[in-house]
Amino acid sequence: KLIPDDGWPDHALELFLSWLACHDTNNRVDTMTIGAGEREGRVVCPLIRKLHCSLTHGIGRSGNIADIQPKALGSSMLACLANEFALHAIREIGVTSCKAALVVPICTGMALSLCMGSWRRQRPEAKYVVWLRVDQKSCFKSIFHAGFEPIIVDPVRDGDALVTDIETVNRILEQRAKQILCVLSTTSCFAPRSPDSLEAISGICQLYEVPHVVNNAYGLQSEECVRRLVAGRAAGRIDAFVQSLDKNFQVPVGGAIIGAFKQSTIKTIAQFYPGRASCVPSRDLVLTLLHQGRRGLLQSYDTQK
């Protein structure tokens, strides 16, 4: 369940992937595949089968992306490894108090939306999300996609930087806490906007018992963003933080990691995901981390810094 210290050679990665694929029912040689169901891993184009290494079942079951699929034990093992590797990587990078991680085959904005949607039942009166403005469309649109309206809090000027307007956030939550689904803050952003003050926001969210989700899109590669996540958790409430796979782990676009400081939070989010999912982002993350190894991952982050 841990990333190996040293990376694997390419032939070992290929053998490992082939071994996993052999555990999916459509690839087994000791049984005859009837193919009567709607999810039998059928692929008509040989090139597509080759591109996916015969892992064509996907991951999860109808009601939970984290459930084991009996027809696809190899793909399910791959998904479990991806979640465990993601958690190990997050801890190694510096967020040591992270308790669970979920790899999802959607990008950062959609992953934020998934988090917000999963909290709807917990807060039936909520209609709004307090959004600490950052001029990036994805996180803004994620609020509408989840079915909520944004309450926009503009940053305030502090010298040459734009920083979090803590007083306004506190006033909104004090007056309308029950109507607020969550606060959506951001760590990774472009100057002159500074990363949000997660310590102050987390304290306010804990005081008024309002969930707090952090858009940490490419923040794992930043010591400052990691420091703010850790400090925010220590100071108060951070329910989930979302980061992109491609920006932080150099894999193709298409996946994100949802991290949380409680396992129950990840369980709720996983159960909210409708239907099954592609295993491609999970596969790419596992292969990349096996290729790099723990030392290689940390060395690449040191080089980037």
TrEMBL record:
It catalyses: O-phospho-L-seryl-tRNA(Sec) + selenophosphate + H2O = L-selenocysteinyl-tRNA(Sec) + 2 phosphate. It is an enzyme of class 2 (transferase). Pathway: Aminoacyl-tRNA biosynthesis; selenocysteinyl-tRNA(Sec) biosynthesis; selenocysteinyl-tRNA(Sec) from L-seryl-tRNA(Sec) (archaeal/eukaryal route): step 2/2. It comes from the Eukaryota. NCBIfam families: selenium_SpcS. Homotetramer formed by a catalytic dimer and a non-catalytic dimer serving as a binding platform that orients tRNASec for catalysis. Each tetramer binds the CCA ends of two tRNAs which point to the active sites of the catalytic dimer. This is O-phosphoseryl-tRNA(Sec) selenium transferase. It comes from Trichostrongylus colubriformis.
